[in-house]
Amino acid sequence: HQKWIAEGVILLNQGSNRIKFERESYFPHIDRFALTPRPGAQPSRAEENGLIPEVVAKVAEQIKNKSEIKLELPENSDHLFPSEKVGQLKLLESEIKRLDGSRPTIPYAMAVSEAPAKTLKVHLRGSYLTLGEETKRGVPVVMAKSNPVAFPENKSGRLELANWITSPKNPLTARVFVNRVWRWRFGRGIVASVDNFGILGNLPSHPELLDYLATKFVSEDKWSLKKLQKRMMLTSTYQMSTQYDSKFANLDPENRYLWRFNRKRLEAEAIRDSIFFVADSLDRKMGGTMINLPARAYVTNDQSANPIQYDSPRRAVYLPVIRAAVYDVYTAFDFGDPTVMNGDRASTTVAPQALFMLNGKVVLNATKSQATKLLKRTDLDDKGRIRYLYRSCFGRNATEKEIARSLSYLSKFEQVYAKVKEPKLSAWQSLCKTFIGANEFIYVE
Asked: Fewest Cβ atoms closer than 10 Å to its Cβ: which of 25, 130, 193, 422?
């Protein structure tokens, strides 16, 4: 629907006058029109404004007050257009419908919006039912002594808090961040208490190094995690071996000063992905989700089964972490409690880990696939297959002694289990399990 407003001078005769509108070419059809006289004393402002606000407002009010006027096109308006154009319009309308039907759905995501700023009361003992005095918005005093900040009264403080946290003048953020990355790379943070930089935490073993890395992280790396890790991994300290030396061990038994690289175990996620990787069955597809359930349909309790397919070969980064139902393989290998903050995972050795490496569904499926693919390699003999296992699982070549020991294991297994179905496949699967269950597979040397 279009609304046209025009100004013009029409000479009218005394009495009744008939006005005829004629349209040329494809000028829109006019359903109804109104004539409004302009007061003679009012100067023309058509060139200045294009419209006369007072007149337009009056006309709009008059039309609005006439409820019987319906500004709608009739249902069948084909007769309003030239006959040769009706067919073209039909084609265009069908094309519009087709394009509307093929329009992709708009992706949705949960988001937050800024609410009106409020001054809230303190929740005594953390309970919203027990309220104390009103408090101003700001940074906790214990954190702002060295870098105080004031929040505007008309702001919620969220943006101001974010700017304060990431400010180059903030002495904590960069140091805490750098220390966490150092812990994941070296097995121990420069400040051992990764989650506690307060007076009850540990003192840094290398305070100057921590300050240096934090300064570079902000000024040169521009908060880039990739650049920070590159800076650490190119150091001679990171590239040291795990070789033990009794001389240095007597001086620094805890390796606090990093005279050798700390031998460390892979995290739970890396162990799982490595098992699929050596079996050549890891799904490297990017993106997507493993929770194909409608909203609010996922429930985990003692009355419902967990619908998540944790044995899927998808990379661990795509496995959902459900606080009430953590993947049992993760819990066996010291996965952090998702309900609390934890920047320093433990590394324990317990019986469930060995049982998983022997009988876990993931291990059984992966080793069977690994053994099947090895036996299909017609370009390799048994020695070649063993060498391949050492290179893929341990990242090194096998010695002649290790090859002989593996061949002996296969021979004895086939003799003992000669009556089982496919004894050769079972023997190779068992050998693959010994490789995956070895310390050398899950520990970084």
From this structure: 25
